[in-house]
Amino acid sequence: QEIKQKIEKYNAKVTNCLLMKLNDDGTYTGFIKVHLKLRRPVTVPAGIRPQSIYDALKEVNLADMTDKRTSFYLPLDAIKQLHISSTTTVSEVIQGLLKKFMVVDNPQKFALFKEMRKDGQVLFQKLPLTEYPLYLRLLAGPDTDVLSFVLKENETGEVEWDAFSIPELQNFLMILDKEEKDKVQQVQRKYEKFKQRLQQTL
Predict the structure, then answer these.
(1) What mean pLDDT is reported for the chain?
(2) 187 versus 173: which is more confidently predicted?
(3) Ranges for the SARAH domain (predicted)?
(4) pTM of the predicted protein model
(5) Distance (Å, rounded) from C-alpha 102 to C-alpha 118?
């Protein structure tokens, strides 16, 4: 009864038809939006077409059709809408997002955060893998300014590296090496500009 009242209150505030629905067994379904804020490239199957509705209905895993892999950057702050259940965990949301984008990286590389705005500040909090995102959405209401979900990379110190394969670890080393070189170039360019200004002044 309490959940029913919360859902009715939630649906009364919805303006885009994305309502929550209560099931006979007490569970409920609804929608969440996840912002993808990934700074590093993801690994996907090479030369594979996007997943069709037919593939999704037949549960065809296109990633299994080739062993070839390639890396690319997902558009920064891309948004994906998911229809989930009250029993769907954070872990399942992460796996679902990776499957939709055909990302074959280990799910442990990623974490789901809740983003909140308070007193003009944006606060991020990492969600446990066993948390239920739809329940958090229900409590917060449909306003994404109050609460939104963000997929980010896990901090490297929090990743269980033993769960990765050798190729995955080698790929991650390549990415970190590229990031290091980019940072070095940024610092070098910064001080080169300072040097030029000083020389001009002299």
Answers:
(1) 83
(2) 187
(3) 158-202
(4) 0.68
(5) 35
